[in-house]
Amino acid sequence: MENAIEVSERYTKQYIVVKIGNEQYGLDISYVDNIVRMQSITRVPKAQTYFKGIINLRGEIVPVMSIRLKMGLADDEFTDASRIIILKIEEQGIIGIIVDEVKEVVELAAEDIDHSTKTAKNDKNSFISGVGKHGDELISLFDISAVVDESENV
Amino acid sequence: MDVSQYLEIFIDETSEHLQNLSDCIMTLEKEPDNKDTINEIFRAAHSLKGMAGTMGFKRMQHLTHDMEDMFQEVRGEKIKVTSKMIDILFECLDALDKYLENVKETSEEGSEDNEAIIKELNDFIAAAEGKAVEEAAPDKEEPAKAEIVAREKKFLEAELTNAEKEAIKNAVNTDNRVYGFTVYIHPDCLLKAARAFLVFKAVEDYGEIIIYRPSSQDIEDEKFDLDFTFFVSSAESLDKIIAAANAVSEIDAVIAEEVKLDIYDKAEENAAEELPEVVEQAEVSVPSADAAKKNQPSAKKTTTNKPVTSRTVRVDIEKLDALMNQVSELIIAKNSLVSISTTEGGNFQNQAFHEQIEYLERITTNLHESVMKVRMVPIESVVNKFPRMVRDLSRKLNKSMELYMSGEDTELDRTVVDQIGDPLQHLLRNSADHGLESAEIRRMRGKPAKGAIYLNAFQEGNNVIIEVSDDGNGIDTEKVKEKAIERGVITQEQAEVMTQKEIINLLFMPSFSMAKKITDVSGRGVGLDVVRSNIEALGGDVEVSSVLGEGSKFTVRLPLTLAIIQALMVEIRDEKYAIALGSIQTIEDIPVKDIRYVEAKEVIHLRDMVIPLIRMDKILDIDPLEEEPESLTVVIVKKGDKFAGLVVDNLMGQQEIVIKSLGKFIKNNKIISGATILGDGEVALILDVNALI
Fold first, then answer.
1. Cβ of residue B681 closer than 8 Å to a chain A Cβ
2. Domain B317-377 in this protein, CATH class
3. Which residues contact B358 (CB under 8 A, 6 or more apart)?
4. CATH code assigned at A87
5. Residue among B329, B575, B663 whose CB faces A61 most closely
6. Any idea where the domains of chain B sit in the sequence?
7. Which CATH architecture has domain B3-129?
8. A129 in a domain, yes or no?
9. Is residue A154 part of a domain?
10. Minimum CA–CA partner of A52 in chain B
11. Catalytic residue (one of B20, B114, B176, B430)
12. E-strand spans in B308-408?
């Protein structure tokens, strides 16, 4: 079993599938450091509106972003299924993003990913690098560097 | 064991020597006849040369050698100190600095020969002497003779273990001869262990070293005085080995003779018996590399004002950072213990438990203070290159000026010190270029022709203040206004209502240069905004005060430490914030009816001071209370000579907090300087008082 994964790794990438609203999104697993339950978030005054605040993750301060607000969707409603996905991004550090639900981990091969959906900027689609097809489901794949990019969204 | 392990020592010591040289040359320019200074220069240059040679940096060695020649002439009063000469010397220092930079980056000195500078040096010497340059003939070292007499054949006294005797026996049995060596290193030698290593290497070409005194590890760690002893088993003749050992520089003497094992046996049998027989004996003294050494003892005596080398350890800053992090973790853990012990319902009402907690608190606080102290270094290492810089500026700008410094021994966290150099340098340049007027104007204004720039450092509470001021023109706010309007930074209407302070603050806007013409020194638009952002990145701030025609003063305020502070925890509604204790003056209960209004702003009148009130809930976007209480809890904070009263809901007490960064993602308006983790795992934000006032 393990062997099979290693062999196929050359051709496929693993994604964590999360639910935000009614849509499914995929996050490249190589960026994911951790997935934690919702916990109390300390508000940071005067920060960008889509930053919910900061949390204490085992002694480290991690900023938490609402991907919903950043994409221009309705504000989060925290439920039992809500999770914070901790992403580790080189140089910029650690950041958490809030998702409604974590579903599964899927493997997508390069040919399963359609990159043609990239559209105009400032649309929520500008955070999407492509759409993956997994069975008959469609998964929008996040472009992580665009999601955490602060330069054009202040 | 190879030379590269000495690279770090070499880099550190070379920078020290270069700094020393630079200081001394500055002094020399002012007091050309100061013998002490010349001798000190000589000593530093000589050490530099020696170290560069040891490490195999030929070009550095060459350059310092020629510099040494120059000093030699000065000392011999054959050359008069002129500013031309000082210029050349500084060029040499810059070249050496470059070599050092190369060494730091690549472990190589680089391939720049600096022939131009060397030529300039030699030409200068030649011109001054009026004849061709001659290498100073190496003199025989007179006093050394006497010393040699005192040098003993220490290897004879070495007490050998049985195993070592066995080794000697075995060596003798294999037809090798065993020689005892005692090597004396020159007292001024800086890398003794490296010398020893080179001696061993040379000797090992001929035979095997079987015994070390002190042990090879101790020699490697430089745990020996000026001499070390070893035994070689070799088939070669003694002379050859001695010659090889002597070829290593900075070795004063190599004393050696063949050792026969029976001498030890005899010595054991009869301790009182005469000294052992000696087959062959050689004693060689090394002629000094140049005449320089001869005068060294006197040079040493005259520099007694130099501090005696203290017992210090060089530690990598990363290790200190790691230590600091661990102390931070410890404090967080301690805070959670404290928090558990104070929650009701726990079984911790035990007296002894609380005593131990208090004890633990004291220990962690002391531990933190100690670590902090270890990390503190005087700002001297940064500011002592400024006199040289101001001198260069003075020549470049053709203005006469002098830098007066005080408080160089003020200490700051190492990371802050490392980064404060550039901003300060910028402020000094600013003063030299824009601040000080030309000589004619100064004369007209009745000021001394020589402009004065001051750099003042001192500690104030939890901050260190560094003031850079000058007695120049000051900031012409009208001109700044004009310029700002011209650049479209502000409108005419805005300009009319701006206060002096606001106008001065315009100088800190990006790309706002006041230089009338672009000079080498400043005016390229990279300006005070960079200074401000650099200082703010360190958690500090910068302020300007200025009187037109009299001068201006830049005040840089820096936090003493970056990691852990004592803070007052306050509550505003259900949010918790920390305020650095260092900036808190007092805490007051102010009845609402005592609030007065000045320019429609709330103020309170307290002990003859009018203090503006800052409603923290408003600043922090918290919904206001529905009903205002009869009295307010006001934390009076201070920044320099300014005060403000922060209105909070509740005081939670004092706590030691570990400052954590919010990371790069969250951008806010600077009123939050960081976050901290409380004992119960909750996160609280730290208010930056300096940004509030």
1. yes
2. mainly alpha
3. none
4. 2.40.50.180
5. B663
6. 3-129, 142-292, 317-377, 379-559, 564-692
7. Up-down Bundle (1.20)
8. yes
9. no
10. B666
11. B430
12. 376-378, 401-406
Q: Do A59 and B664 touch (CB under 8 A)?
A: no
Q: Is the omega angle on the peptide bond into residue B214 within 30 degrees of 0, that is, cis?
A: yes
Structure tokens at B502: 């606001």
Which chain B residues contact residue A94 at CB under 8 A? 663
Cα distance between residue B168 and residue B231, in whole Å: 9
Side-chain-side CA neighbours of B422 within 13 Å: the count stands at: 15
* Tens digit of each residue's pLDDT (9 = 90 or more) over B421-444: 888 988 888 888 888 888 888 888
Q: How far is A97 from chain B (nearest CA, A)?
A: 12
Place of tokens 């230089």: B515
Measured distance CA(B671)–CA(A45) in Å, rounded: 9
The H or E element spanning position B674 is strand B672-677
Mean pLDDT on B238-245: 79
Residue A117: domain span: 2-145
Pick the residue of B622, B664, B666, B670 with the most A CBs within 10 A to test the interface with A by mutation: B666
CB B658 within 8 A of CB B585: no
Higher pLDDT, B275 or A42: A42
- Decide if B672 touches A, using CB distance below 8 A: yes
Beta bridge partners of A20: A23
What pLDDT digit, counting tens, does each position of B47-75 carry? 888 888 878 788 888 888 888 887 777 77
Q: How far is CA B281 from CA A137, B238, B284, in A?
A: 94, 8, 10
Active site residue B68: yes
pLDDT over 70, % of chain B: 83
pTM (2 decimals)?
Answer: 0.54
Q: Which one of A42, A95, A148 has the shortest CB-CB distance to B683?
A: A42
Residue ranges of B 197-226 with Cβ closer than 8 A to chain A: none
Topology adopted by domain B142-292: Alpha-Beta Plaits (3.30.70)
B605 is catalytic: no
Q: Which of B563, B565, B560, B564 is nearest to B411 (CA)?
A: B560
Q: Which spans in B398-522 are helix H?
A: 414-430, 439-444, 477-487, 492-497, 500-506
Average pLDDT over residues B142-164: 58
Burial zone of B71 (CB within 10 Å; 0-12 exposed, 13-18 middle, 19+ buried): buried
Q: What is the DSSP letter of B586?
A: E
| Interchain contact B574–A (C-beta under 8 A) | no
- For residue A110, the tally of other CB atoms under 10 A from its CB is 10
User: B128: burial class by Cβ within 10 Å (0-12, 13-18, 19+)?
Assistant: middle
Query: Does the residue A150 lie in any domain?
Result: no
CATH code linked to domain B379-559: 3.30.565.10
Closest A-chain CA to B336: A59
The one-letter amino acid code at A98 reads I
CATH classification code of B564-692: 2.40.50.180
3-state DSSP assignment of residue B550: coil
Residue A64 to chain B, least CA–CA distance (Å): 9
- B contacts of A144 (beta carbons < 8 Å): none
Cβ of A42 and B675 within 8 Å?
yes
Which pLDDT does position B649 carry in this prediction? 92
CA distance B471 to B389: 18
Domain count, chain A: 1
Yes or no: say if B551 and B469 are a contact pair by the CB < 8 Å rule: yes
Does any CB of chain A come closer than 8 Å to the CB of residue B691? no
Report d(CA B282, CA B541) in Å as an integer: 68
Q: CB distance from B664 to chain A under 8 Å?
A: yes
Cβ contact A42–B663 (<8 Å): no
Closest residue by Cα to residue B402 from B668, B30, B13: B30
Q: Which residues of B touch A45 (CB under 8 A)?
A: 619-622, 668, 671-672, 685
Q: Kindly state whether residue A10 falls inside one of the protein's structural domains.
A: yes
Q: How confident is the model at residue B579 (pLDDT cuts 50, 70, 90)?
A: very high
